Amino acid sequence: MSRQDKAVDLRSLTLEQTVTLVAEHGQPAYRGDQLWRWVHRNGVRSLDEASNLPGALRASLDEAGVICTALEVADVQRSVDGTRKMRLETRDGRSIETVLIPDGDKMTQCISSQVGCALDCQFCATAKLGLTRNLTAGEIVDQVYLAKALLAEEAPGQRITNLVYMGMGEPLHNFDHVMQSLVLLTHDVGANLSHRRITVSTVGLVPGIRKLGKQEVRPNLAVSLNASNDEVRDVVMPINKKYPIEVLLQTLREFPLEKRRRITFEYVLLAGVNDTLDDADRVAKLLRGFPCKLNVIPFNPHPLAPYKRPSRETIDAFQQRVRELGIATYLRTPRGDDIAAACGQLANREQQQELVQLR
Ligand code: SAH
After folding, report:
1. 3-state secondary structure of 280
2. Distance 156 CA to ligand 1 centre (A)
3. Is 16 a known active-site residue?
4. Which of 68, 139, 187, 318 could share a disulfide with 135, CB 3.0–4.6 Å?
């Protein structure tokens, strides 16, 4: 393990944990409070910027190997539709991506929870990278802070209103850090987002969903369904062999929902694979009686998967059929696909090219 692996990361700590840390360095509680504000309100990139802290405290933290994880902005791409994709670099030189999606008076940020992903969903570009490592809570929240800074510069007055854990990675595979990031992001000194405006999206890891159900503060839950029967889901999302549709749905039926809350199901439409009217009928049957909505996502093509997006007519017919059968269904129009920022395209262009060459 390197010094950095063992290091305490200030950006990952709650206010209480920061106060405790500072006390261990012989400083009063208000110093912890100040330090926390520097990191989460002022978004300092290094402790040297925390100018009203005693030099002795900074030196003592530094001596103890305390770090303040900061991501570096490596690149920003801007789509014609207003979507922005940021490529961010971690201290150990890994690349991750986050996407800002304006939609009317909403601004949704899609954040990553892992470098790569361990799951092998056949249609997803990130899956092809494999898993490098989990992001720390600090790295998860820093995506939001950097996006806020970008907006302040390029679109003053625009605020991030919604947050979705739908970028690279499987958030429930990085459960503890994701939960810690939620504590940080909902704190009023930090990003001050309501948990009602935060959505965690999962492939359907049953133990993780059960664990999430037991948390006191729960974000909204989205589940990638992506097929209408086990036969097809086994192929497109091999995790289905472990947690088949009925087991997943039973777990979701037991998931405690707050009043007027619904589970979101996502359904990537793959031409000739899961896009028939029979599929629509089966999906409606699976979801009947659930407090839920269905987001239909036409497949976003990329060089790493053999699938195609269905025709406009097929997409419309599918959506209309499920809707007629009583399920609230929304079509997610692809955003930012000119800069490969749409769902399932996050894999860094360079890495994608390398992978394509290896095949
Ligand atoms: N691992 C989590 C979150 C990341 S994926 C999950 O699977 O839910 C976020 C969403 O993008 C999922 O619903 C996934 O099915 C969808 N997706 C992945 N690749 C896609 C692609 N190429 N086109 C359209 N949607 C895709």
Report:
1. helix
2. 30
3. no
4. 139
| Protein residue whose Cα sits closest to atom 24 of ligand 1 | 299
Distance of CA 89 to the CA centre of its chain: 16
- 350 pLDDT higher than 80: no
Dist. CA 336 → ligand 1 center (Å):
15
From the list 97, 139, 170, 266, the catalytic residue is 97
Domain 72-358 superfamily per CATH = Aldolase class I (3.20.20.70)
For residue 86, the Cα-to-chain-centroid distance in whole angstroms is: 14
Domains 3-67 and 72-358 share a fold: no
- Ligand 1, atom 12, lies closest to the CA of 224
**Model-level pTM greater than 0.90?**
yes
Q: In sequence order, which residues have a C-beta less than 8 Å from that of residue 223 and are 6 or more positions away?
A: 201, 202, 203, 204, 209, 248, 252, 263, 264, 265, 266
Query: What would the pLDDT profile of 296-340 be if each residue is shown by its tens digit?
Result: 999 999 888 999 999 999 999 999 999 999 999 999 887 887 787
- Which tokens hold the place of 157? 């007055």
Per-domain residue ranges for the chain? 3-67, 72-358
**Rounded CA separation 346/99 (Å):** 9
Class for domain 3-67, per CATH? mainly alpha
Q: Is 343 a catalytic residue?
A: yes
